[in-house]
User: Which sequence fits this backbone?
């Protein structure tokens, strides 16, 4: 079974195609983002979230996300993401450089997800994840 990526808002097809090389993707089918409860339910089985809008990602959302390894943002300042809550759970939070906008930012966020799912440290990491002995 492929890892699941939940995308919080519609993004360009190129970024989706990049993710589909290694992942299953849960796509928004409307112009608006997921409702908070719907996003919480979808995220329960997610290995990654691609936050394409400033979604609120906090303890409420993360509580049931036992497989989540990364929240990749398509924006530079993820002020709506509780980085401390993610770090406590061993979840990477990444952003993109200010020069990347739109499609380029979405592709960079997708690359960050693929880095983490491949066991690499993502570019744009905003937190430090504690390594545990295997």
Assistant:
């Amino acid at each position: 079974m492929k890892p699941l990526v939940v995308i919080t808002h519609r993004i360009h097809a190129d970024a989706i195609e990049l993710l589909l090389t290694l992942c299953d993707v849960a796509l928004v089918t409307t112009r608006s983002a997921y409702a908070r409860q719907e996003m919480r339910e979808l995220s329960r089985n997610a290995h990654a979230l691609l936050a394409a809008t400033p979604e609120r990602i906090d303890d409420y959302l993360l509580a049931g996300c036992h497989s989540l390894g990364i929240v990749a943002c398509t924006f530079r300042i993820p002020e709506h993401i509780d980085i401390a809550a993610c770090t406590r759970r061993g979840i990477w939070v990444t952003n993109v450089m200010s020069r990347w906008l739109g499609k380029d930012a979405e592709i960079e966020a997708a690359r960050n997800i693929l880095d983490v799912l491949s066991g690499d440290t993502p570019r744009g990491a905003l937190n430090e994840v504690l390594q545990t002995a295997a």
Q: What stands out?
A: The radius of gyration is 13 Å.
